[in-house]
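Listing S7. Sequence submitted for prediction.
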Amino acid sequence: MFLSTGNSQNIFHRRLPQLSAALISLTLLLVAGALVLWTLALWYKYHPHMPWRDTLPLLRDLLTIFEGNYTGTDLLALLEPHYTAHRVLVPRLLLLLDLRLFAGQSHLFFAVGWASMALLLLLQGSAARSYFRGCRTGLLASLTLFTIFLFAPTHLWNLLNPLNSSWHLSIALSMLALFVAGAQHTPLSARRVTVAYTLLTLAALTNFSGVIAWLLLPVLFLLDRRRYSVWAFVGSGLFVLIYIQGVASDAEIALNITADLPPSDAVQDMEQEAQAVLANNNLWLVIARTVDLLAWPLSRGSQHWPRIPVVLSLLGLASLWVYTIRNWWLHRSRLHPWLVFCLLGASLCLGIAASVQFGRLLTYPDAIHGPSPARYQTFIVGYWAYISGLAVSLGGRRAGWRQTSVLALTCAVALLLVLAPGATLARQLKSAEYAAMLYLVGEQQELKSAPQSMAASFTSDYALAFDALFSSHGLAYHAAVSIPERRQDLPLCSNLGVQLEKSDPLAPLSLVMAPNADFQTLIARVQGSAGMGIRHILIFNGPRLAGRLGPQHRGDFSPRQLAQAGHYEWLGGYMKSAASEPWSTVSLEALLSPPRSCKVRLSE
């Protein structure tokens, strides 16, 4: 009996580290699931159904092609840099398809963004499975950590901005190319090389991150001792030289803009800021800013201690590169393909973060561009996702105290990085609401004139310059909406718990609204849980679209408050000149259910 008890205790002590590692992995799985649901709920509620302001310059480039009056010069212009920063042929073509197939409601952009993240997760799982063969806890922990970083709400800004799905697509194409070229210890055929370079070309024509991947592929060939590595370096160098022709930083753009503008205090301030940042942008400043960017959003509150995990990760990444090059030089066995994959993924995201410091130098108002670090959160979370993969591999491929300790530490750092303070998340969503509100404030004739210069494309007036195009082609919020033919039989909105109140223009809207006696700001509230699934509210007078209201939120966007219907309201505008009938039709639009309609008397 005594021996039996002792044996049981010994077995328990031997199994304890395995049980601890399994418990951490299961906890990570639950956290990953909760974060995915939280992010999906926020994205569902706040992603727009029409081109964001960043998409409008692409629409301007596509007008002749969209209307069928294009020439060969117009087609070649699709390869020109966007804002002189990226060559975005692929997003331009996606926008053209979205205009044709989905009335320009950005459905294609969002589908591509989510599919790209799913592809990244699939590639991670495929690469990790061979490394963690026989160790389910290591494989599960690696994939859940990757999911936590990739789908956390800190990534929300890029999920809401249709054009920023280009980050997801470019990184996914780049990692797929690297996976095809070097994920397995198998002979590399000419077909796989062709596929890899095709994917990298598409990635580079999506945004600049694909250019970094072009430089990494020859490194992969060299580590694998391919005979054509030198030719790959030469080809990549020529590609990059061709690509960067006409590419410039935003400070250089600002100087070019100010040279064409009439002298004024604002123009002089912009010119002085651009000259100052160009003069001060030295190597050490680039390194410091890169570290701070990779530490966002922690670096928002403090610029010192959040740098510690970044610096440690960079030292670990550099050490792994030194070890890899040393093994290559001494003709020793190369790293496992999984480790090489994570190493290249982290290096890709690090290269993008550094290139941002050479290109995006000016500080933009949050109301126009959103919190600047949040615009680049895709590759920030990508960097930490691949770093977490390398960290988990340090725990070994067998469950034990070493693996348990590494998982616990990695889990703590991951949660610290992705669980952004409520104020940071609210800031992103408020900026998203502001950007969407530019299209909801109404059809003001004084804001419809085409911009006269490139500088005008940075003003709020530009957001409404395409409304006539949307109206004439039935695009975006002017797309066909199912309205009951017998509108007189509709129930009163008040009987459905829908209250519409007239309001003075609110402070955020006053920045984008010129005085207009024909425009009336409206606030809508829906009683009970019925309002939780509503995306936006359209108002029709007869068959004519007369108003558009978008979602607002008064809470901190936590899961608990998202489940409370009382925190929702909708804000937008109503054009009184459209009131040809005394009763207006209100259409409550939801993504996963048919729209509901009611009627309200808005005419005076």
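Caption to Listing S7: primary sequence and predicted structure tokens for the chain studied. The radius of gyration is 27 Å. The chain has a mean pLDDT of 77.
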